[in-house]
Design a protein that fits this description.
It contains 22 helices and four strands. It is mostly helical. Strand 3 (259-260) and strand 4 form a beta hairpin. Helix 4 (83-107) runs parallel beside helix 13 (306-331) and helix 6 (133-146) crosses helix 11 (221-242). The chain starts with a helix and ends with a helix.
Length: 465
Amino acid sequence: MIATQGRWLEGQQDRDPPDKLRPRPWLIAVPALAFFAAATALMLREVEPFINWYYVSAWYPTILVLDAVQATISGRYYIVSRPRFAFSLLGWSAVLWFFFEVVNIRVANWYYVFLPPERPLRWLGTTISFMTVLPAIFVAERLLAVGNRFEKLRWPTFHASRRLLVGIFIAGIVFAGLSLAWPRLFFPMIWGALTLLLEPLNYRRDPGRSLIGDLSAGRPGRLLRFLAGGLMIGFLWELYNIESRSKWIYTVPGFENFKLFEMPLLGFFGFPVFALDCFVVYQSLVMVRVAVAENVGSPGALRVQPRRAMAAAAAAAVFSLAALFGMDRWNTDSVRPQLEGLWVVESSTMERLATTRYRDVFALARAEPQAVAEATESSFADAEKWVAAARLSTLRGIGTANAQLLWRVGVESVADLAASDPNRLGERLRGLTLRPRVATQPKVRVWVRAARRATGDAGSALGAR
């Protein structure tokens, strides 16, 4: 076991001298930071495409900056100079998060709003976004590792017996089973279930690639770095989500209030555990020879088996495609509002609106009815109706399809929504459609709270149940 761990650590410490590092870290960090700053400024000004694609625009430069910083310390890039490893991380990252999207069909802890209405663009953007998960987690751990965080920490060694490994595996089955059978009560258990299920298998194959192997050898450093890195990256995930138009919203049972960004405060404890899942799953893929090892090119590194990897990639592609269909049906609540989706605007008027500065639903929502009436040579009453529909459609990810349902039950403005009882409203809305997971109670509570905040009723917003 010790020899195996030694070979793995040897590969991790294989670094180039700092004076030979190419390209220089600042040549990567400075342009990445400049792009990040520009994307953030343009997003805040609601400039396309950054207002709708901010998550992608922020995360890829962040990963490059983190890699450049750790390269400055260690003398070797973790991702930039290892293209095979980088592409492997990116690809399996998307597949891993698609797995959790499939799980979310059952647990229903989050949903997406204002995604691109065009399916090819929506699926492409979703996949590119999910590809950042593993690189972000891994490079954060590497940054802590090169800073020698937790590296010297030791605790008593122990023997990882067969009974212990079987017990951990059974715990994984229990965690997964409870979270899927009774998600309202046990949803937190889904985070960590993969670690409990796969870690005993990883340890049996190669203790050097196992967290149990680290712990049994008295070295908790890597586990602690992934925990800390997961918390750090989780904070950035939620920060980058908050102002983007295309985003996710949480509806975690019992934790809908007291949030930091979109995440309930207690939910941040899930990110460290998720980081362990990321590490354990990727090491499993490496050991079955379908993913590229982080020490690729080093003596003794595990090599990908081409035929097995191609079969795994094909299976992953089919699974990802199925997951995307599932996301469209269950996890995506609205697409970006389009002017042609405003049911209250007649086609002839639509053409006049399209020639004005109110041709975008979000611009129309910010407009005053009188200005719209003058620009389109329409009556004030008609313009007021259009603006009310636009404001309802753009509030908190509601979208035009949900807003049209609200109009059918008499909720024709943000003020009407603020005055509604969320439970009664949700029941009425669900009776109007056969679409799955439309106007669930948690979603309607999100809408009503947002409407009450928008109309200045902050006390009622907190009390919307």
